Hints:
The protein has 404 residues and is of the alpha/beta class. It has 3 domains: 2-286, Metallo-dependent phosphatases (Purple Acid Phosphatase, chain A, domain 2); 293-346; 362-403, no CATH class. Helix content is 29%, strand content 22%. The chain has helices spanning 21-38, 57-72, 87-90, 94-97, 145-152, 161-169, 173-184, 300-304, 330-337, 367-379, 385-403; strands at 2-6, 14-15, 18-19, 42-46, 76-80, 102-105, 115-119, 122-129, 193-198, 200-201, 220-221, 231-235, 241-243, 249-252, 268-274, 280-286, 293-298, 316-321, 341-346. It has a 6-stranded mixed beta sheet with strand order 6-5-4-1-15-16. Strands 7-8-9-12-14-13 form a 6-stranded mixed beta sheet, with helices on one face. Strand 7 and strand 8 form a beta hairpin. It starts with a strand and ends with a helix. It binds manganese (II) ion (MN). The site of manganese (II) ion has 7 residues, from loops.
Amino acid sequence: MRIAHTSDWHLGRSFGEVSLRDDQARFCDWFVKLVGEQGCELVVIAGDIYDRAIAPTESIDLFRDTVRRLLATRAKVVAITGNHDAADRVAAYSELLDQSGLLLRGGYDRIGEVIPLPASDGPLDLVLLPFLHPQIAPDGFGTDPAARDTDEHGDSEDVDVDVLLRRRSRRTHASVLTDAVALARPGLTCGRSLAVAHAFVAGGAESASERRLEVGGTGQVGAELFSGFSYTALGHLHRPQDVPVDGGHVRYSGTPLPYSFSEDHPKSVTIVDLATDGTCTVEQVPVPVGRAVHRISGTIDELLEPGRFPEAHNGFVQATVTDRETVREAKARLLDVYPFVVEVRLAPVADGHGPGPAPENIREVPPLQAVSSFWEAAEGSPPTGAVLELLTDVVATSVQAVEQ
Ligand SMILES: [Mn+2]
C-alpha cells in the first residue's frame, strides 16, 4: 500500500509580517493532486495541523476543504494533534468523523487503541499517538511503577494529594509516550503496522522554528520506543529526516514550507510504499510551491546592486547590512529589490583595530577610552576626525561636571 506522510502544516502561520495563507493553500492544492496521481491509499498528517491553539477560521476552512478533497481521491486520512494544536478542540468530533474516512486523534481519550485498517493488499494496524502533554495525563499514566510503589507505602487505596502531585511532576514526554505505546502493543496482530506520533525523537536535527517541548532535552524520547513498527510517521521536527532505529523505519516528513531562516533545506512530503510483510521503501517528493528562505549579507550598496543575489528576489530574505556608517531606512530600501525581506540586521564589520583586551578593573579605564571603545563596538571602527573631537569635548565637559 502507498502512504503519503506529511506533518507540521502550521495553518495560519505568518513569516515575519507576511501571511502564508496563499502559500499554504497552494501547497494543499498541489498535495491533493499528488495524492490522487500517486494513488495513495492513506494520507498521514503527523501533528501541528494549525499554528495556534485558537486557529483562524480561514485555516479551519482550508483544512476541512483539503480533507474533503483528499477523501474524494478515495484515500483515507489520518491526522493527530501536535503541541501547537488544541487537542480537545481539534479532535472534538473524532468519533463522528471516523465514519467519514478521516481518523483524527488528540489527547488521552483513545490512547491504546489499535485501528485495523483494511488496505487493498491486506490489513494494517494503525496506532495514533498525538502529542501528549505529561502534566495533563490521567493519574497513574506515565509514572514509573517502582516510584509509584514507594510513594504509596503499599497502601494503594488512599493516596494523598502530595503523592499525586509528586507523581505528576515526575512525568516526562518519554514516560507518557512509553505508556501509550505499551498500551497499544498487545493489539498489534497483523505483522504490518504504522505508528503516527508528534514528538522530539533523540537523534533528530532541530530547526529554529519548533516550539521547544521542554528545556534541556527532557522533552526527547528514544527512537527505540518505535522499534517493531513497520513505519513510524513523525511530526515535530521541521527538517525531513530518517531517525536511525533497529527494527523499523522512523522518519520525519518535515514541514511543507519553511517557517524560519534556519530551514534553508528543500521542503518535501514523503511517499511510503509499505509491503504486506512490513518492509518499506521511501521517496521524498519536493514541494514545488512556497518561497525559499535566503540569508544575504553585505553593505547596503552591495545588497541593492541589481543581480547580486538573484535567487533572493522571490524568497523570504534576512539581510545583514555590514556598513560601518549608520544606514537609514535600510528595510524600506531593501524592499524595493527584495519584496519579501522579513528581517534586517545591522552588523557593522570591524576594521581590525579591536578595542583591545578587557581591563582588569573597569574603573581604571579613562573615560575617553571607554567611550571610544563603545563607539567602535557599535559602529565598527574607532571615532576619528570631527566625531572624535566632539566626543573628546563631551567627555571633558562631563568629567568636569562630575568633579565639581
Ligand atoms: Mn511544528
